[in-house]
Specification:
The complex is a heterodimer of chains A (about 290) and B (about 425). With about 290 residues, chain A is mainly alpha-helical. Chain A has one domain (about 15-215). Chain A is about 75% helix and about 0% strand. Chain A contains ten helices and two strands, in the order ααααββαααααα. In chain A, a hairpin with a 7-residue loop joins strand 1 and strand 2 (about 140). Chain A starts with a helix and ends in a 9-residue tail after the last helix. By secondary structure, chain B is an alpha/beta fold. Chain B has two domains: about 30-155 and about 300-365, Response regulator (Rossmann fold, 3-Layer(aba) Sandwich), CATH 3.40.50; about 155-285 and about 365-400, Response regulator (Rossmann fold, 3-Layer(aba) Sandwich). In chain B, about 45% of the residues lie in helices and about 20% in strands. Chain B has helices spanning about 1-20, 50-65, 85-100, 110-125, 155-170, 185-195, 220-225, 240-250, 255, 265-275, 295-305, 315-330, 335-340, 375-380, 405-415, and strands spanning about 35-45, 70, 75-80, 105, 130, 150, 175-180, 205-210, 230-235, 260, 280-285, 345-350, 350-355, 365, 365-370, 390-395. Chain B has a seven-stranded mixed beta sheet with strand order 8-7-9-10-11-15-16, with helices on both faces. Chain B has a six-stranded mixed beta sheet with strand order 2-3-1-4-5-6, sandwiched between helices. In chain B, strands 12-13-14 form a three-stranded antiparallel beta sheet. In chain B, a hairpin with a 6-residue loop joins strand 13 and strand 14. The termini of chain B are far apart. Classes of the chains: A mainly alpha (about 290), B alpha/beta (about 425). The interface of A and B includes residues 115 and 136 of A.
């Protein structure tokens, strides 16, 4: 029983990071209506920025504050220069553009930082195990990751629900033609949403560094899973991404316990089932 | 979507065009005495193992430098090609090397899949090929061609047979295997499941697989602990190894369960750092601080050029070039003569004492058992405060005791017809 509980809890932790990555992807898809293929590479850039800041300051604390701001600016810059001309064109154009951007970013990082990975340590303050009373103790850093993810998810939700900007964004997701007709300068909101999506990916990158290390291809490894989360949750659905991320984390974790050889395909089997029987996703709009 | 479909179709066409059938060519060897000796090196210079491929290129280039660029009275010319770790690219590049470049020898590889592709071309063209990645398949039917095929790296079963007595004797008798879910991981699992029960009182209590490129190993931790294991063998390499050890350390797993790394390479050790390596064990076919003149000659050459000791993959190319040069110097510049030169050859090169046995051209070289050190121990026991991450605690000599016997090999060949 203890082991089952441990697997469940660790599944939730694994799912939390997927949630963060999928939420940024989902937000951009919701408003800009294209799949940002470079999302994984931008997550990697965030992780690299964090690794240099951590090396300079000795921990990731400063990175957690600085990286979202840096990535917000990077996102805004990208949207204003190369993403904006894609609006109104075929979705495939934006897909191909961000696909190309992925390779430029990966090779750029390789040129700057080399092909090898960089080490990032979890903060010393969190270098202990937390006994939960049931199951085996969990590293404090992993619980911290869950806490940060919960704060980011909550913050994003409040931003979308309780602010005027969020109201326009939500309205834009439903019908951006109408929003424009009402005289809203919609381009600014697109820039903001793309930048926020990239900043959230950056936060995911900061949090992942101490768990897996930082390396040029790290975004490619996880992006596919993030896509699966978005599809399973429902394209454009906020809580769908949260639910699907956690569900996939738990399912993979439990499969690891009973039949590890199948753990890698579980998310894809789930995606096929959802696409077959509930094409709009678990919590997607009808 | 039509655009995407067209792109996919184009890519598929390109791939199929690249992976076409193979014509003979080359017919290496037998060049005039002062004609350049052309050696084709095919390795992964892009893709997941780029560092290992680059090191193979460095190993070959340094060997040529150490030989003063000459094999006997023939100047050595290296032609290096990237197989991108893809069998179809390896086929194409190997074909280009034998047909267009007219190479006399082929060597290199970091992936088992590409080594078989290169060997196929070598066999058709009659060009000797010195394979350099750890696989059971290169010198077994239907791939082995006694005229051209040589295997300088240890097979997984060889290394595992050599390492298992240490695992069971020193680390624990209830062993859990955590293996990558692809051919190499399954080959390792089979070898461990054969070797470990042969050690008195020792058994495999559980096995789990992880997909190549796994970043999240957290779910595996309770699975391993729940098995009751007191020793863990991790069969992944590269990035998987870094991710796993980082997460295992966060859980304190490596303090509770003695952890043995099947595939060690300095490139990844550096990224792991002392904190993660301390308190783990590993095995390797090469380690830079081994006290042997042949090993140290290569280490010195590498350090002089690159300012750091080499990892474990360039050594096979260093050895390959030395063997080729020595053979050519002794007049073995045709495939037949080279086969005669290599069969049963005993040499002392950068892996220590090594024999290339006659029955399957498999190199039998030592396997080193390594202990991970702390930063404090590094200078004393590891020989270097920066790179002395491990120290040799046991050297298992390269003998037939740890490989399938020639009798078993012959039976396998007869069975395959």
């Amino acid at each position: 029983m203890d082991q089952l509980v441990s697997q469940l809890l660790l599944g939730l932790v694994s799912g939390a990071l997927l949630v963060l990555l999928a939420l940024g992807l989902n937000l951009i898809f919701g408003l800009l209506e294209f799949i940002n293929f470079s999302h994984g590479a931008l997550y990697m850039v965030g992780a690299y920025v964090a690794s240099y800041l951590a090396a300079a300051t000795g921990s990731i604390w400063l990175a957690l504050l600085v990286v979202p701001i840096v990535m917000l600016l990077v996102g805004a810059g990208l949207e204003r220069t190369i993403i904006r001309p894609m609006y109104g064109r075929d979705q495939v154009d934006a897909l191909l553009l961000t696909f190309g951007l992925t390779y430029v970013l990966i090779e750029g990082i390789r040129m700057i930082a080399g092909s090898g990975g960089r080490r990032v340590r979890a903060p010393e303050l969190l270098d202990f195990q937390v006994p939960l009373g049931i199951g085996r103790p969990i590293p404090a850093y992993l619980l911290f990751v869950v806490l940060v993810v919960a704060l980011v998810v909550g913050g994003l939700w409040l931003f979308l629900q309780r602010t005027d900007v969020g109201l326009v964004v939500r309205a834009g997701i439903r019908d951006h033609v109408m929003i424009r007709a009402l005289g809203v300068r919609f381009d600014r909101y697109r820039t903001l949403v793309f930048a926020i999506g990239v900043a959230v990916a950056g936060i995911a990158g900061v949090l992942t560094g101490p768990i897996t290390g930082v390396y040029p291809e790290m975004g490619a490894d996880i992006l596919i899973l993030a896509f699966v989360v978005v599809v399973v949750g429902g394209m454009g659905s906020f809580w769908g991404a949260v639910a699907a991320g956690l569900l996939i984390g738990v399912l993979v974790s439990l499969t690891t316990l009973y039949a590890s050889v199948y753990a890698g395909i579980v998310p894809f089997v789930l995606m096929i089932l959802v696409m077959t029987f509930r094409p709009r996703g678990l919590l997607g709009a009808t | 979507m039509r655009v995407t479909a067209a792109l996919v179709a184009s890519a598929a066409l390109l791939v199929s065009a690249c992976g076409g059938t193979v014509a003979g060519g080359g017919g290496g060897g037998g060049g005039a005495s002062d004609e350049p000796l052309r050696v084709g090196v095919i390795t992964g210079l892009t893709g997941a193992y780029v560092q290992l491929g680059e090191e193979q290129r460095a190993g070959a280039e340094l060997a040529v430098q150490a030989l003063d660029g000459m094999a006997g009275d023939r100047p050595i010319e290296l032609i290096v090609r990237d197989d991108q770790l893809k069998p179809d690219v390896a086929l194409r590049e190997a074909q280009a090397l034998v047909q267009e470049e007219q190479v006399d020898f082929l060597t290199g590889c970091v992936s088992a899949a590409t080594t078989l592709a290169v060997n196929q071309i070598a066999s058709q063209a009659g060009v000797p090929y010195l394979g350099t990645c750890q696989t059971e398949q290169l010198n077994r039917p239907p791939n082995y061609d006694p005229e051209v095929t040589y295997h300088l790296a240890p097979t997984p079963s060889q290394a595992i047979k050599a390492g298992s007595p240490f695992i069971c004797g020193q680390l624990g008798q209830r062993v859990f295997l955590l293996m990558p879910d692809y051919a190499f991981g399954h080959e390792q699992e089979t070898a461990y499941k054969n070797a470990i029960p042969q050690q008195s009182g020792c058994s495999v209590v559980g096995t789990a697989y992880f997909p190549l490129g796994t970043t999240d190993f957290n779910p595996y931790i309770p699975t391993i602990e729940g098995s009751g294991a007191d020793a863990l063998v991790f069969g992944g390499a590269g990035r998987d190894q870094v991710s796993f050890l980082r997460q295992a350390e966060q859980f304190g797993l490596t303090d509770r369960i003695r952890t043995f790394i099947s595939i060690e390479d300095l490139t990844f050790d550096e990224e792991l750092g002392f904190d993660l390596i301390d308190g783990t064990w590993a095995m390797a076919a090469f380690y830079w601080n081994v006290d042997d003149p042949g090993v140290q000659e290569y280490v010195e050459a590498f350090r002089t050029e690159y300012g750091r000791p080499p990892g474990g993959y360039g050594v096979y190319l260093w050895n390959a070039l030395h063997l080729i040069a020595q053979g050519v110097e002794e007049g073995a510049d045709s495939p037949e003569a080279f086969s005669e030169f290599m069969s049963g050859r005993e040499v002392s090169l950068a892996q220590g004492e090594m024999t290339v046995r006659e029955c399957d051209h498999q190199a039998l070289a030592p396997v080193y058992i390594l202990e991970g050190l702390s930063a404090e121990e590094a200078a004393d026991r590891g020989g270097d405060p920066q790179f002395g991450l491990r120290a040799v605690v046991e050297t298992v000599p390269g003998t037939e005791e740890y490989a399938p016997t020639c009798e078993e090999v012959q039976t396998e060949f007869q069975r395959a017809g």
